[in-house]
Amino acid sequence: MRNTKVLSITLPSPMLQEAKKLARHENRTMSELVREALRQYQRQKRWESIAAFAQASAEKIGVRNEEDVVQAIHDFRREKRLRQGKAKGSKRTA
């Protein structure tokens, strides 16, 4: 049983000629070329979605640039070391 479906698309003639040339150059079928193009498009859209989420999250916590990111990392690591130091100190006194 076949797991694929046929899709009919229209392209401007110059775009079709370029696609054929690219497929021939890469030793691919037109179907393979279009599937790869769709996969690339999906990856790009996913990345744009992730980037938009990251941007919104950064704005919520006041991160505006790379320096803010570096400072946030240093602050987090400093706090983590302090917590670990306190945990070790409480084990010694017990």
Describe the protein's architecture and organization.
- There is one protein chain.
- This protein is mainly alpha-helical.
- The chain is built from three helices and no strands.
- The longest helix has 31 residues, at 30-60.
Quickly describe the structure.
By secondary structure, this protein is mainly α. Helices cover 77% and strands 0% of the residues. The chain folds into two domains: 14-60; 64-94.
Record the SSE blueprint:
Elements lengths: L12 H13 L4 H31 L5 H28 L1
Give descriptors for this structure.
single chain; 94 residues; 3 helices
Arithmetic mean pLDDT: 92
Report the strand count: 0
Inertia-based shape? elongated
Work out the count of structural domains.
Answer: 2
- Content-based structural category: mainly alpha
Please count the helical segments: 3
Amino- and carboxy-terminal Cα gap: 69 Å
Largest sheet: none
Strand residue percentage: under 5%
What is the string of helix and strand elements?
HHH
Q: Determine the oligomeric state from the structure.
A: single chain
Low-pLDDT sequence parts: none
Q: Compute the CA-based radius of gyration.
A: 26 Å
In helices, the fraction of residues equals over 70%
